[in-house]
Specification:
357 residues; choline kinase activity; globular; 11 strands; single chain; Kinase-like_dom_sf; 6-stranded antiparallel beta sheet; 3-stranded antiparallel beta sheet; alpha+beta
């Protein structure tokens, strides 16, 4: 998950030696940098998978900046880093994101994009939301090299296996992990119809992964760790769920689902999304995608609920992953009867809060 612009100054010593060598080599290529060794390191807050740093050097005019991304410990369970780099390079070549400037064993150096990272409130701004809808459609329509198989269901099953192997017995019981395999199968059957639009999905389109150039009003989507082919309804559903989050508060793990977009806002977003490629969608198309999006919110809750359980045991970033997971599972059990029409009694412990960790 992405990083925002809240910053903390840190010492250069926090960077791996290989990273510092790449940074010095880059700075040496810029004639206006006064001293390649005088780099300032600023940690960007809000990242929950990696540690992200802004690196800058004093120059004769405007300071030079790049980003250093240090991969989180143990997060290889979530994605293949080689796949992510291939995606990153493809996106860069097609003008969709920052350029890759260098790699080292546990991280990389990226171009610094001179744009503003969105805030939580920006997702609720109708004008910005319209820009995001159009950009998401452009992203989903990318023709990525390699297989175009839907990855969601395999990812859920793999993450469920990892969560079961890492969770303490009381955690596994509280989250009803023994019942989730069946739930995944039900969701897959319900949401794998031939009508589903399949595209290249970001799968983590929270506000920290979206940037806006306020001069041109252009949107850039960044951070592709979780990107893969999926039903585009999942990408939209996940984005809607992220409207409940604000990762730059004193309690960044707390979600407020009263901020989930209302029907009118969802309709507007979906209509803009479908019409952004030039064709006006029918009311039936809009309604079908809206219904699919709502059902895919259940998959989003499971994905990030399992992510939270795993992260609690493998990631050292200061974030209450387990409480975040509890809220996502709670929403899953809460919405499931309405969206799928049935729910097991064994899930009530989480839905009622009795199974809280």
């Amino acid at each position: 998950m992405g990083a925002g612009e809240n910053t903390v100054d840190i010492k250069v010593d926090r960077l791996p030696g290989e990273a510092k060598e790449i940074l010095k080599s880059l700075a040496a290529e810029w004639e206006d940098v006064l001293d390649v060794n005088e780099l300032q390191v600023i940690q960007l807050k809000g990242a929950m998978t990696n540690q992200v740093y802004q690196i800058k050097w004093p120059t004769k005019t405007v300071s030079r900046k790049v980003l250093a991304r240090i991969y989180g410990e143990g997060v290889e369970v979530f994605f293949d880093r080689d796949d992510e780099i291939r995606t990153f390079e493809f996106m860069s070549k097609h003008g969709q994101g920052p350029r890759l400037l260098g790699r080292f064993p546990n991280g990389r150096i990226e171009e610094f994009i001179h744009a503003r990272t969105l805030s939580a409130s920006d997702l609720h701004d109708p004008e910005i939301s319209a820009l995001i809808a159009s950009k998401m459609k452009e992203f989903n329509d990318l023709d990525m090299p390699g297989p175009k198989n839907v990855r969601l269901w395999d990812r859920l099953r793999n993450w469920l296996g990892a969560a079961k192997s890492l969770a303490l017995p009381e955690e596994a019981k509280a989250f009803c992990l023994d019942t989730i395999e069946e739930d995944i199968s039900v969701l897959e059957k319900e949401l794998s119809g031939a009508h589903q639009r399949i595209g290249f999905c970001h799968n983590d389109l929270q506000y920290g992964n979206i940037m806006i150039d306020e001069v041109t009003n252009s949107i850039t989507i960044i951070d592709y760790e979780y990107a893969s082919y999926n039903a585009v309804a999942f990408d939209i559903a996940n984005h809607f769920c992220e409207m409940a989050a604000d990762y730059h508060t004193e309690t960044p793990h707390i979600l407020d689902f009263s901020k989930y977009p209302g029907l009118e806002d969802r309709q507007r977003f979906v209509r803009i999304y479908l019409s952004s490629s030039g064709d006006e969608p029918s009311d039936i198309e809009v309604e079908q995608l809206l219904q699919d999006v709502e059902k895919f919110t259940l998959a989003s809750h499971l994905v990030w609920g399992l992510w939270g359980i795993i992260s609690e045991h493998v990631n050292e970033i200061d974030f209450d992953y387990m409480e975040y997971a509890r809220q996502r599972f709670q929403q899953y059990w809460l919405r499931k009867p309405e969206l799928l029409g049935s729910v097991r009694a064994s899930s009530d412990s989480v839905a009622d809060g009795n199974g809280a960790i």
